[in-house]
């Protein structure tokens, strides 16, 4: 049992953090009948090693079955611990509870009752819960080992941070990350005639340093296919994979598809996950953009070793409210100095992607033409 705990506890991002309320409930109501979520093997018991001493005194290791129920309880304990760690860091976004809403039967009908513990509280939480299930499904189809093999054929990573710096030196303006985004939960469809490659090429002509490509299908109508199409079309701007990362598997996947950088959201990921994922990114040659929204998140992220890029999102992802004074507030003073030292860049989506010529939208944004060959 100890071995299982340490395995899950030392690989935090690969596990979920079940919600306290619903898990408490499921321990009393559901545990005895539910299938195990992810720790246990498909059989009704799992295996752990037991040391057996033979007559001649030599020791051998033999497998002994661990009851599935014990594994569920262990998973619950680890989940509780991870929830508490996240909450202690001010993270309000909960992870999807391992069990769905409890089942109730009335005559021949089956009901799942919704309650605070098993219903997402806001859109970001809904996206994250959806990702938890989506990634679990994708991982089953393409396990990490297979994905690692695919990396051998991936196009080489390009210097995302270098491209931002170069653009800044060339224009004297913050490097621009222009977003290739068809839709968003707050705004709905942004562009009906959405051609990701044409938009990317237009941004490149307009002087964008890098591009951010939405890959989430359900909420943003994006895809990894878009990312691959843009990369394979020969667009030189390095590409940020704009995803909702909950699991290190997604980082390998993004790299396999040709991404040069990936987004990590401080409102979702505890410090240890950010640190661990940043290390994986470095190993794979990806840059990490860590997105923050308030002082608490900035203070956490600044202290994490190896963070090179911090993005300030002026949109509250729980309420959708946009308030540009957030950036102003966060880059002021001593705290702001530490961010300014890392260089300033801007990530813009809606206002330029909606223009008939998105590349020309960049000139409008900066009030001057910053394309590589201005006329
Ligand atoms: O934009 C949303 O509705 C949204 C909802 C929930 C999570 C994330 C969301 N947006 C992602 C972004 O943060 C934006 O794509 C990015 O900041 C660019 O914003 P904009 O320039 O306003 O398009």
From TrEMBL:
Q: Which Pfam families match?
A: IGPS (PF00218)
Q: Which domain of life is it from?
A: Eukaryota
The signal sequence is none
Which pathway is this protein engaged in? Answer: Amino-acid biosynthesis; L-tryptophan biosynthesis; L-tryptophan from chorismate: step 4/5
Query: InterPro entries, from UniProt?
Result: Aldolase_TIM, Indole-3-glycerol_P_synth, Indole-3-glycerol_P_synth_dom, Indole-3-GlycerolPSynthase_CS, RibuloseP-bd_barrel
UniProt keywords, alphabetically: Amino-acid biosynthesis, Aromatic amino acid biosynthesis, Decarboxylase, Lyase, Tryptophan biosynthesis
List the coiled-coil residues. none
Show the ranges annotated as biased composition (Low complexity): 36-46
The EC number of this protein is: 4.1.1.48
Q: Entry's CDD domains?
A: IGPS
**Region described as Disordered:** 33-61
Query: Lyase among the record's keywords?
Result: yes
Its catalytic activity? 1-(2-carboxyphenylamino)-1-deoxy-D-ribulose 5-phosphate + H(+) = (1S,2R)-1-C-(indol-3-yl)glycerol 3-phosphate + CO2 + H2O
Entries under PROSITE patterns matching the protein = IGPS
Limits of the Indole-3-glycerol phosphate synthase domain? 124-333
The Gene Ontology biological process terms listed for this entry are:
L-tryptophan biosynthetic process
One MF term from GO for this chain?
phosphoribosylanthranilate isomerase activity
- Record PANTHER family: INDOLE-3-GLYCEROL-PHOSPHATE SYNTHASE, TRYPTOPHAN BIOSYNTHESIS PROTEIN
UniProt name for this protein:
indole-3-glycerol-phosphate synthase
**Species of origin:** Quercus suber
């Amino acid at each position: 049992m100890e071995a299982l705990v340490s395995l899950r506890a030392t690989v935090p991002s690969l596990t979920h953090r079940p919600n306290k309320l619903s898990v408490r409930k499921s321990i009393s109501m559901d545990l005895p009948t539910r299938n195990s979520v992810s720790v246990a093997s498909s059989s009704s018991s799992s295996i752990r090693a037991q040391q057996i001493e033979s007559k001649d005194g030599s020791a051998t290791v033999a497998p002994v079955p661990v009851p599935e129920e014990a594994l569920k309880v262990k998973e619950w304990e680890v989940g509780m611990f991870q929830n508490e760690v996240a909450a202690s860091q001010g993270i309000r976004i909960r992870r999807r509870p391992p069990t769905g809403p409890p089942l109730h039967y009335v005559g021949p009908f089956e009901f799942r009752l919704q309650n605070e513990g098993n219903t997402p509280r806001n859109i970001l939480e809904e996206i994250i819960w959806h990702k938890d299930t989506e990634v679990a499904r994708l991982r089953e189809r393409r396990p990490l080992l297979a994905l690692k093999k695919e990396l051998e054929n991936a196009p080489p990573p390009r210097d995302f941070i270098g491209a931002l710096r170069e653009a800044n030196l060339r224009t004297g303006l913050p490097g621009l990350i222009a977003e290739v985004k068809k839709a968003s939960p707050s705004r709905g469809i942004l562009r009906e005639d959405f051609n990701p490659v044409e938009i990317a090429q237009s941004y490149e002509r307009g002087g964008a340093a890098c591009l951010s490509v939405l890959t989430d299908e359900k909420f943003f109508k994006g895809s990894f296919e878009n990312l691959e199409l843009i990369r394979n079309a020969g667009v030189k701007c390095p590409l940020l994979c704009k995803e909702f990362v909950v699991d290190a598997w997604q980082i390998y996947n993004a790299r396999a598809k040709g991404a040069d950088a990936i987004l990590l959201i401080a409102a979702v990921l505890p410090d240890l996950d950010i640190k661990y994922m940043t290390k994986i990114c470095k190993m794979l040659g990806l840059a990490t953009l860590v997105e923050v929204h308030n002082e608490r998140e900035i203070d956490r992220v600044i202290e994490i070793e190896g963070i090179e890029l911090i993005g300030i999102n002026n949109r509250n992802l729980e309420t959708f409210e946009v308030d540009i004074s957030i950036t102003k507030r966060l880059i002021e003073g001593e705290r702001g100095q530490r961010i300014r030292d890392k260089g300033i860049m801007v990530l813009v989506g809606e206002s330029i992607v909606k223009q008939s010529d998105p590349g020309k939208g960049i000139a409008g944004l900066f009030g001057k033409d910053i394309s590589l060959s201005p006329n």
